[in-house]
Amino acid sequence: MSERKLKAWQQAGLIDADTVARIQAWESEHTRPLGIWAMVGLGALAIGLGIVSVVASNWDAIPGEIRLGIHLALLIAMGVLLWWRLPKTTAGESDYFGDAMLFVAAVLGLTFFAHVGQVYQTSSPLWQPLLVWIVIFSPLLLLFGRGWPVAALWMAGVLGTAWAHANEYGGGWFLDRLGGVQPSYPILYWGLIASPPMIIAALAAAARSRSARPIFWRLLEQLAIVTILIALSIVIITRGWSSQSDHVTGSSVIQSLFLAGAAGVIYLARRTRSGEATAAILGVAAAVHFALAMVRDLGGATHGPWIPAFLFMALWGAVAGGALYAGWRWVFQCAIGLIAVRVIILSFELSDDLLGSGASLIASGLFAIFVAWVSVRISRRYAPSREAEA
């Protein structure tokens, strides 16, 4: 805790001298020697890099079975360490060391499948080892994970599995650019393959109130929401409805239903301002995605810049409104910033000559500055300086 802040709070009458003394005493007892930990971390990193270098220099000389045996022994050793460490952690308490061990064990497990394929020269679609890894390690990561590394690793594994499976059918499902051999039921398949983020967001929201690790489930929910917003934004920017596939409309409707379902589950599971804001954002995302599906076959003005810009600003306007309602100042300002950037980009898209583009840039720049000024005043008035629970 900064001494300057403590003095400022005391002078402002927020805390008294006794409170300052207690805070200072508590901080001195719980302080962490960051310099020493940094040295330990650098030493461990140097040792790890040294081991990797020694192994890499003799990689071809080591028989494959011995390498696999060493790899398996490392996995077993990590399992024993986890069995010893994880029960010692108090419910609700952060455990950086335990999370680090979980992360390393999961990565060792993931690389083990690649190692087996290298040694025995096996070939299989990428989604198969990823799916096996998800099935084996999901219980461990979801039951004991507590922080960002584990949540992000598991989320990346789920998304990577879905992406790798979709690539078997031409790839590019993220941008509605389908090609190659289609699955037996393409509308259902392309609708379901994009649903994991919505399912994860709903399950994480439902688990938050029932788990002793609500922070972990909040992180998973946030990762899922961010994934949804980024994916939908990219589809809007790239005008995903321009695909000539006959399956995009039906699959997009299914994806919109998943978005609406996730919004409903979050609204029922978390009856707070944060939960209501998240549900509203997903509801608007479902409507925007449904609009994308409905207009993809229309011609004329729908392929111009206005509709993509309107849908993008509608999506992020909903994010800004939800953030203002829930008190997420940083999220509100980022959403307003994205809208301002989209307005500037629209000025380029609407102007064909240098004079027109210059005038449009001046107007859009003034508009962006005005929006920034208004957003700062609104956020100071209605959003707290410290974000509420996301």
Structural description of this entry:
By secondary structure, the protein is mainly alpha-helical. It folds into three domains: 62-168, no CATH class; 187-298; 304-390. The chain contains 15 helices and no strands. The protein has helices at residues 3-11, 17-30, 34-57, 64-85, 96-120, 127-144, 148-167, 186-192, 196-208, 214-237, 248-269, 273-295, 306-326, 329-350, 354-382. The two termini are 24 Å apart. The model is unreliable at 386-390 (pLDDT under 50).
Task: Briefly say what this structure is.
This protein is an all-alpha fold.
Features:
390 residues, mainly alpha, 15 helices, 0% strand, globular, disordered C terminus
Any chance you could write out the topology, listing elements then pairs?
Blueprint: H1 3-11, H2 17-30, H3 34-57, H4 64-85, H5 96-120, H6 127-144, H7 148-167, H8 186-192, H9 196-208, H10 214-237, H11 248-269, H12 273-295, H13 306-326, H14 329-350, H15 354-382
What is the number of strand segments? 0
- Structural class, judged by helices and strands? mainly alpha
Order of helices and strands: HHHHHHHHHHHHHHH
Q: Roughly how much helix do the residues carry, as a percent range? A: over 70%
